[in-house]
Specification:
- The complex is a heterodimer.
- Helices cover about 0% and strands about 50% of the residues of chain A.
- In chain A, strands 2, 4, 5, 9, 10 and 11 form a six-stranded mixed beta sheet that branches. In chain A, strands 1-3-8-7-6 form a five-stranded antiparallel beta sheet, with no helix packed on it.
- In chain A, β6 and β7 form a beta hairpin.
- Chain A is globular, with a radius of gyration of 14 Å.
- In chain A, about 40% of the residues are buried.
- Helices cover about 5% and strands about 55% of the residues of chain B.
- Chain B contains one helix and eleven strands; from the N terminus they run βββββββββαββ.
- In chain B, strands 2, 4, 5, 6, 9, 10 and 11 form a seven-stranded mixed beta sheet that branches.
Chain lengths: ~120, ~110
């Protein structure tokens, strides 16, 4: 039973346009959400995070939006660049509750940004 | 060296072999984790160690045996594995809860069981 779902395995976007990656979760105890980026042959690297007390967090070209009522978050990348091509993982944690603060990951979405 | 280092990067082993994966972190973190990444599946949490004590075993088969001799080193001992155990095994470390500090991952060990 997946607690963090990324239903789009892949996404292709033209350079300069916006990339929107989506993530849904089922555990209402999750109170912190993170996005990780992974290049081939490397481990995931932290990209951006958001606490459940916020609905938006922005860092340069990257913005994460959180809709708690829908249990949905999204990562916006604008403008998209070819170097953004990677697999993006959504992750969530709950300081209290079953996962004991550990990160629970989605399956990932492979983003391809075409020049 | 800095960050989280995993060795070997690639490993091919037969089903009757015994091998070990090694993870070392130079960040002064107190928690270490093993994750498994299989094709078309989420990263699956396997084991968690806090201050060298195992705090979580996520229903992992006994053919996987973790060892954490100190807060900087983590091993995953493998024996009598199955072909379906072929995957990327990722080690991570953190200072505390992910909420406060996030995780730092190693580059992983690509394991193939033949």
């Amino acid at each position: 039973d997946q607690q963090v779902k990324q239903n789009s395995p892949s996404l292709s976007v033209q350079e300069g346009r916006i990339s929107i990656l989506n993530c849904d979760y089922t555990n209402s105890m999750f109170d912190y959400f993170l996005w990780y980026k992974k290049y081939p042959a490397e481990g995931p690297t932290f990209l951006i995070s958001i606490s459940s007390i916020k609905d938006k967090n922005e860092d340069g070209r990257f913005t994460v939006f959180l809709n708690k009522s829908a249990k949905h978050l999204s990562l916006h990348i604008v403008p998209s660049q070819p170097g953004d091509s990677a697999v993006y993982f959504c992750a969530a944690s709950a300081k209290y509750g079953g996962s004991q603060g550990n990160l629970i990951f989605g399956k990932g979405t492979k983003l391809s940004v075409k020049p | 060296e800095t960050g989280v280092t995993q060795t070997p990067r690639h490993l091919v082993m037969g089903m009757t072999n015994k091998k070990s994966l090694k993870c070392e972190q130079h960040l002064g973190h107190n928690a270490m984790y093993w994750y498994k990444q299989s094709a078309k599946k989420p990263l699956e949490l396997m084991f968690v160690y806090n201050f060298k004590e195992q705090t979580e075993n996520n229903s992992v088969p006994s053919r996987f045996s973790p060892e954490c001799p100190n807060s900087s080193h983590l091993f995953l001992h493998l024996h009598t594995l199955q072909p379906e155990d072929s995957a990327l095994y990722l080690c991570a470390s953190s200072q505390g809860f992910a909420k406060d500090y996030g995780y730092t991952f190693g580059s992983g060990t690509r394991l193939t069981v033949v």
